[in-house]
Structure formats: structure tokens, C-alpha cells
Amino acid sequence: MRLGLAANRLHHQNQDAALFRWLRACEAGIRELKLGLHAIGRTHDAIAAAGMLAHYPGLRRYPYGREGGLMKLVAEVVGLEGAERSLDGAIYLIDPVDPSSIFPEAIALKRQCVIHGKPFLSTMASAHDWIEMERIHAGFAPDPGADRFHALETQTLALIAHDAMKPQMLAFAAEHFDTLSRFAHRIATGTTGQRLNELAWSLGWPQDRLWAERYQSGPMGGDAQIADRVLERRCQRVVFFEDPHVARQHEADIQLLERAVTTVTDDAVCTTSPAVARRWLQAVALRAGRGA
Asked: Which residues make Cβ contacts (< 8 Å) with residue 61, sequence separation at least 6?
């Protein structure tokens, strides 16, 4: 398995930056998984200067961003000739106020991950959670350092889906209803929340209780309302099934929510692919079955 790796300057400018916190937490898992990390120039150089992933053959250096490094990652997420030119997703630790985070290649990297159903991991928490997910699927023992991502009973989960993705969200919720019901709270934007509540009632959830607390619809500000909860660290996980093929009038609100997630990079996990979301919940079940 291979992932592209990039981090804005904020996330590797000192030893306490997010990139290094992630590597300290996950280096053992990276080596266990034999994960390929195709890192663009400045990110790779920062890892090497910090003495991390020393002698690890899976770490490859790509050109600097200004020399096309991030563009190459986008092309390899789509897939080029041969297995060596194909990536299974990307880690891009984003500083929401860094102008490069909204360069075309940065936006395209996320969009192509969403289109191809591959993980796009934009926060330190998302990257840590993903490593644990893949470790569990590979049969490794649970890492106690990742326990906080599996304490569902203490967390709030946001469920958001654009119109074309609402059927997939409902199918996802029905398939994993018992596990999703373990969360302390579930919140959703307007129409998605209503349909999720109707589904829950049909599955035996008490009729006098909302399964998901409803916010405004996305175009009316629901994304912004959920962003506020994320910023206040009162929402720890966002599952956001986006439709990348349709222009949306409330695109600014969507970006606001995404920027809120990256602002609290240690605390918020965001999943944008139905395939990755299902794989996450399968890992939750496997990990619980191993007594973690």
C-alpha cells in the first residue's frame, strides 16, 4: 500500500509540529504495514532532518511542490502506468491559512481521492486513525495509543451527504446502525438528518427520540453550524459523503467545514469516501472483538 504525503510548513516547522507527532505515534505501525510514503520535497526533507523513518525503504522523495511534486501525487492517485505509479490515497496535513492549501493541485488531490474512493487524510487525527484501521485489518494487536479513536461512547459524530450521495449515506447507516448508535451523539444537516431519523425509527429506535440531531440544511448554513461544533471540540468525527461532480452554491460553507476540521488537526477525524467509512467501521468491530 502506498500513500502520497505532504504537510504545509506549519506542520513540520518544529519538533512538536503535527507531522512529527503523527510519526512518533505511528512509526511502528508504518513499519509493520510496510507502508509506502511518497513524500513531496519539503516534507521529505523535514522527516530526514528530524531523523525519523531512518533507513526506511518505503519513504520516497518527490520534487518540491513548486516543481510539481503535489501535481505528481494527484496523477498517481488517479493511476499511471504500472503499480509503482499508483497511490492508494493521500495524507495532506493542511494548514487552513496557508495559501498553498487552496492551490489547484491541493484541491485536485482531495477531489481525485474522493472520486476514486481513496482515503484523503487532512488532519493528524485522521492519519493516526487510518494507520490503526489498517493495522487492525492486517491482523496486528490494537495499539493502546489509538484507544481514543475507538471510545465512541464519548464522541459526537457528524453525518453529512450531498443529494446524490444520500442513498449511500442511508445504506451506510443501515448497514452499521448498531455501531453508529454507540456514539454519544449524532448530528447531521437538515434533509440527511431527517432521513436518518426515519431510518432509525424503522429499525426500532424509540419514536419519541431523535437518532440524529438536525441542523440547518447545507445551503442554509448547516455546514457552518457543524463547523462551530468541530472548532469547539464538541464533534470529534465527520463522515462527509461529497458529490465531487456537481457545482454547489454553498461551496464556501463546505470549505468552511473542511477548514474547521484542519484547524483542530489533533482532534478531528474526517472521512469523505463511503468505501473508507465502511472499512473504518469494520475495523471498529474487529478491534472490539479482540478485546481492545
From this structure: 39, 41, 44, 45
CA distances from residue 59 to 55, 106, 159, 220 in whole angstroms, order as listed? 9, 21, 34, 44
Q: In what order do the strands lie in the sheet with 59-61?
A: 59-61, 36-39, 2-7, 90-93, 120-121
Tell me, yes or no, if the pTM score tops 0.85: yes
- The pLDDT of residue 163 is 87
Active site residue 223: yes
Do 49 and 37 contact (CB within 8 A), yes or no? no
pLDDT confidence band for 252 (50 / 70 / 90): confident
pLDDT score at 245: 79
Give the separation between CA 286 and CA 142, rounded to whole angstroms: 10
Active-site entry in 223, 228, 243, 253: 223
d(CA 70, CA 83): 19
- Strand ordering across the sheet containing 237-241: 213-214, 185-188, 156-161, 237-241, 269-271
**Does residue 174 register a pLDDT over 90?**
yes
Q: Is 66 within 8 Å of 99 (Cβ atoms)?
A: no
Asked whether the CA dihedral 183, 189, 195, 198 is positive or negative, the reply is positive
Q: What domains sit in the chain, N to C, each tagged with a CATH number?
A: 2-122 (3.40.50.1380), 144-289 (3.40.50.1380)
